[in-house]
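Justification of computing resources. Each target in the renewal requires a structure prediction run like the one illustrated here; the chain below, 205 residues long, is used simply to show the kind of job we budget for.
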Amino acid sequence: MKLLYAPTSPYVRKVMVCAHLTGQAGQIQWLDSAAHPIRRDGRIAAHNPLAKVPTLILDDGQSLYDSRVICEYLASAAGDDHLFPAAGPARWRALTRQALGDGLLDAALLARYERTARPADKQWDDWREAQLLKVGASLDAIEALAPQLAGARPTIGEVSIGCALGYLDFRFPELTWRDRHPRAAEWFGAFHALPAMQATIPHEA
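Resulting structure tokens:
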């Protein structure tokens, strides 16, 4: 398997965490790319019409995208029925928590792009604040969920939330999200110590 990736992408980190959790990290060849919200990278577009990372290229040449699909593929390939629980309440909880983590990331990325990808004369402060409001509301929801979140044996829900909180630390340290979310902070402190999280800490290229 080959993975088109960017070392700072939180969605790539989700895939990398799942690869470590399912024992497949060593089976993946990591292909660097120049993913960008405006400048299209032909190396990615050749395998994914959206030209976005992560994109997984299977041994038979088939491409899988996005992180949700790739993570479930890795769990299925490894015979892991815990990361993505079978049909029933546990599955819907895990998928809804994945949506919460991904939604926080979507909003945070849009807020970041407003400053880093859009020219200064075209930036819209109200738009950015609306995205950060979603981030804050997501943090409040995670705070309420924190006592129920798994630590040592996570589902895709915890992986997604953990990668989202890690992204806030990486790109939005000024939010100091721990100050108003102590239970989420306590959970994340333990979750971040997992080997799969430690092996995937984002860094600038």
